[in-house]
Amino acid sequence: MGIGKGFWDEMRPLARMEDLSFLRGKKLAIDLSYWLVQQQTALKDQYVRKPHLRLTFYRVVKLVAKVGALPVFVVDGEPPALKHGVRMKRFKRFADMDTSLLSEFLTSEETCGSRNGMFEENVEECVTLLDLLGMPVLRAQGEAESLCAALNREGLVDACVSPDSDALVHGAKCVIKSLQLENKNKGPEVELYRAVDLEMSMGLRRKHLVALALLVGCDYSPEGVPGVGCTSALRLLKCFVESEILDRLRAWGRGELSVQDEVEVEAVDNAAGNLSSVTHCSKCGHPGNKKEHTNSGCRECISSSTDVCDLTDCTPKHKDFRCSCPFCLQKAKKKREKRSNEWWAKICHKISTTPGFPDEEIISLFLTSEIATGEDISSYSSVIKWRVPSVEQLEIFLQNQLFWEPIYVRQKILPLFTHFYLTELAAMPTSAPTCNSKPLLLGAYAPLCIQRIKIEQGEPLYRLTWKSMKEGMDGQQWFGLKGESKRRRTGEVAGNDLEEVEPVEGEAEENGSCFTTDENMEVVKAACPDLVARLDTEQEEKHAARARVTKKKKVDTSLEKQSSILSFFKHEKQVRNTGTGCGKGSVEELSPHTPDKRLVGPGSKGSESLITSLNSKSGTTKFSLVSPAPIPGTPRRKVSKPVARRLSFEQSQT
Fold first, then answer.
1. Are 180 and 187 in contact (CB under 8 A)?
2. Of 32, 368, 453, 533, whose CB has the highest number of CB atoms within 10 Å?
3. How high is the pLDDT of residue 448?
4. pTM attached to this predicted model
5. Over the stretch 567-597, which tens digit does the pLDDT of each residue have?
6. Residues 499 and 613 placed together within one structural domain of the fold
7. 597 and 533 assigned to the same domain
8. Where is the composition biased (Polar residues) (predicted)?
C-alpha cells in the first residue's frame, strides 16, 4: 500500500518509462512478498501446483539470463504491531472472515506479530529455491521495503523493486513500481521513480515524505488526518523546509501554535493602504460611471480602442474582465489572503483535533535505518554474492515439489549456466588463459561458433553453438535432446508452465553433439572475441561473394538484351527478272506471298499432279487451275492483295 489517498497519481508526471535493457548489469533489491502476492492475484481462480515456485523459477531465469539484471531478494521479518489494522483488512478481503474474529485472532499471544502460516510456508519454499539457484537472500528485521531502501541508499543495489511507496519514505533513491517481464501488450516494461526528481520538481525530501505519510495515511496509520488529501498535504509541505516540517506538525498536534502564528499576513497601513471605494462603470468595468462615460467618454477605453470614429462611447467588458485599478488589485489581494487564512485554519484544526498526532513511533520506524553503521554495510556487502546453481540438489528439489524430470530441469536452467559462464569469461584478463586452458561450462562444454544473429522481441542476439570437449559427455543426451523433436519439447514440456523459457535446441554432428543457446551480443563480444571476429569475417566473405555474383549476372543479362548491329541498317528486298521471250522484262519484288512459276501455275508438274489427285478423290467437286467466271449480278467479294496478285498472275499465264 504505502502512502495512500492518490500519492502515485500525484507522482505520475515524474514517472520514467524504460525497457528491459535499462536493467542490464544493475543490482535490484526485490521484495519477495510482492512477487508472491502478485502471483496469488493473477491465479486466484486457477489451480496450478506450487505456482509460487514456478513463478519464482521462471522469473529468476529470465531476469538473470535474458535481461542481465542481478536480483537481491529481501524477506520480511516480524511485522510491527502498528500494522495490525492493515493486516486485518487484508485478511478480511482474502478470507472473507468476520472482523471481530479477525481482530481476536490477530491480537492473540500466539499470532501477534506473526504472519499467515501458509504464506510463510510459501516464502520459505521460495527461499530454498532461490538459494539453490545461487541468488542472494536477505532477511529484514522488520519490513522488507525498509531493508530494500537502506540497501539502495547505501549504494549496495541500484534500485528497489516494490509497488509500496513506503520505500521512498524509508529513503530509497530509485523505486521500480512496475516490472513487466512478460510484456504481451507492448507497453512500458519498467516504471520507475527517482528521489532526485521529487526533490527537483516538487521540493520533497525524505522528512517531507514522512510528514506526507502521517497526514494522508500509510501502512502504520491508514486513516492519517481525516479530511486531508494528498493535494492539500503537498500544498502544506511546500511552505516549510525539511528541517522544520516535523517540528511544526508536533506543535500543531499539541495545539501549541495557532493559525495567526503560522500565517504571515501583510499589514496594510491605514493611511496609504486602505484606499477609498471607487465606483465602476457597469458597461466597460473601468473606474467612473456610465453617465460620465456617455457624456465625456472613458479614458481607458479610448486609450485601448483602435476605432478613431468611436471616441465617445465605452467598450462593453468581456466575460473574464478584471479591473487593474489600485482599489481592485488590493481587494483581490485581500480575498486571496482571506481564503488562504481560512484554508490554514481548517487544516490546522483538523491536525489539532486528530488524537495522538503525530505518532512518534511511526516517525521512528520511517527514519530508523536497518543499516546503521559501517559494519552493517560490510556485512551485507559480503552476503550479496551470486553463484552457479547447484544442479543435483535443484533436480531433487524440483522433482519433489513440482514433479519435474531431471532432464527438463537441465533444459530450463541452461540459460542461467551459460550466462554465468560467459560473464566469468568476460571478467577474466585477456592475457590469462588461452583457448585450450579456458574453463568449461559444467566442466565439459565450450563455445564452438556463432551460427547467426537472431532478433528476439526487437533485440539482436547471438545464437551460440556449444560442443562437448570431454569424452563421455554427450550434450544431447545430458539435456534430453536425442530422439525428441523440437515440436514435442515445446508443446508437451513447456506448454503447461506459467511462464515459458525457450527450450534448448540440439544439432547433431559427425564428431560429437552440439546444442545452441541465444546470448546477449555484448556479453559474447567480451567473453569470446575470437568467435565474433570469425563470424564477422565469414559475413564479409559472404557479402563479397554475393556482390560478385550479382555483378556478373547483371553483365550477362545486358549482353543478352543487346541488339544486333544489323538491326540499325535498312533491309534490302530480293528481286527477280520476269522477262519475256523477246528479251524485254520487268523486275518484281519477291515476298512470301509471290508464287513461284516453278511450283504453281499451268504447265508445272506439281500443280497438275495436285489437281489430278484431288479430282480422283472427290466424286462431285472438280478442281481446276483456272478460276471460274463470276456469276452475273453477284457482288464481287473483296480479296486481299496477295490473293489478287496471285489470281492476276494465273490469268496472265492462261
1. yes
2. 32
3. 87
4. 0.71
5. 666 655 555 555 544 444 444 544 444 444 4
6. no
7. no
8. 606-624
